[in-house]
Design brief:
Protein name: Protein-export membrane protein SecG
Largest sheet: none
Order of helices and strands: HHH
Oligomer: single chain
Function: Involved in protein export. Participates in an early event of protein translocation.
Pfam families: SecG (PF03840)
Radius of gyration: 41 Å
Main location: membrane
Strand content: under 5%
Number of helices: 3
Membrane topology: Multi-pass membrane protein
Number of strands: 0
């Protein structure tokens, strides 16, 4: 269905382009070629101009309908790009072994006690008063 509507859409777009180029323009547009003799339209007198105008309107309506149809047909398959992604696997963590937990606590206690014991005594802050001679 998408392919059929897509082909119709492209054909109508090309027809719409041709119809717009055929129509008379006030400033000697694309197919006017700057000639000043005779009629200004490619198809002839004013009757042909109204035919081109009517055909352009219908081609524009069909083009708009095919645009909307293509957007509805393609959007109904998935709601979002994220919905199409595969589900992420849950992260599994290994449980801690009971034998390793006390050893880790003893090592952590020793590591925190060692820097406190070897820390130098605090030095007093220098005075803010300048030295006088």
């Amino acid at each position: 269905m998408n392919t059929f509507v897509g082909i119709i859409h492209i054909v109508v777009a090309l027809i719409l382009i041709i119809l717009v180029l055929i129509q008379d323009s006030k400033s000697n547009g694309a197919l006017g070629m700057g000639g000043s003799s005779g009629s200004n339209s490619l198809l002839g007198a004013t009757g042909a101009q109204s035919l081109a105008s009517k055909m352009t309107v219908w081609a524009a309506i069909i083009f708009a309908v095919t645009c909307l149809t293509l957007s509805v047909l393609t959007s109904s398959k998935t709601k979002s790009v994220v919905d199409a992604l595969p589900a992420a696997a849950p992260v599994q963590t290994a449980p801690a072994t009971p034998a390793a937990a006390p050893a880790a606590d003893a090592n952590a206690a020793a590591a925190t006690a060692a820097p406190a014991a070897s820390a130098p005594a605090a030095t007093p802050a220098p005075s803010a008063a300048p030295a006088t001679k």
